[in-house]
Amino acid sequence: MTQTEKLTWRAFAPGDFERAAGLLGRTWLPEFPARAQRAASQIELAHYLARSTWSLVAERGDEILGAVLLAERDREGIGGEDWAALEARLTDGAEGDPELAEAVRVEMDGVREEAALELEYLAAGGAGTDATIKLLIVSPDAKGLGIGGRLFSAALDRLRETGARGYHLLTDDSCDFGFYEHKGLRRAMSRLSGAYWPGVDPATDEFHVYVYDQEL
Fold it and tell me: Using an 8 Å Cβ cutoff, are 8 and 65 in contact?
């Protein structure tokens, strides 16, 4: 049996939260101390889940190797109120610890900056506003297994099945946006970031956030 044959593909379940947040932390926030990484990644994941309507995870044994979340316009979320309440509780809990509060502020400032750019994009009302890929993440340990491509393709299949005219996503200079360009997406918007990103000084370093989109 090959490595890909051992994979299970299924919808995200509430019991996946800790493992998926751990994957997010290890992949996107490796420079954060362990406690801060856990706090920031859990709050960020709860934030995305609160806005999502469809999901798919790739699992091998008890390890989540990848996940994709979609937010589709005018469709019911996957427990949005519960995830929003969890985000609020976790945020309140982190505020009493300076180390955790600073990590959460740094990470969520970037998320909010991307959200502000997205609002400008949505105001135009193009085909890409029908849906958003809120999250696409693959474990570095799963490179070469084609998990990212399969998750991405499954999300597009879902959008075509439901009649979406197009979709968009938010990304930044820390991500491999060449993957999206290879998949045929175009860079629709770009913004020089004013937020603090780990390892980046906004006073001296250029760091950009982007909207990519594609018609279906």
Answer: no
Q: CA angle at residue 41 from 39 to 45, to 5 degrees?
A: 120
Q: Which amino acid is at 84?
A: A
Q: Quick count: other Cβ atoms within 10 Å of Cβ 202?
A: 13
Find tokens 């906004």 and name the residue.
202
State whether residue 10 is helix, strand or coil: strand
Structure tokens at 67: 């996940």
| Mean pLDDT of all residues in 80-89 | 93
**Nearest alpha carbon to residue 12 among 58, 50, 51:** 58
Q: Encode pLDDT of 18-33 as tens digits.
A: 999 999 999 999 999 9
Q: Cβ-count burial of 185 within 10 angstroms (0-12 exposed, 13-18 middle, 19+ buried)? A: buried
- Amino acid 2 reads T
**What is the C-alpha radius of gyration for the chain, rounded to an integer number of angstroms?**
17
In single-letter form, the type of residue at position 7 comes to: L
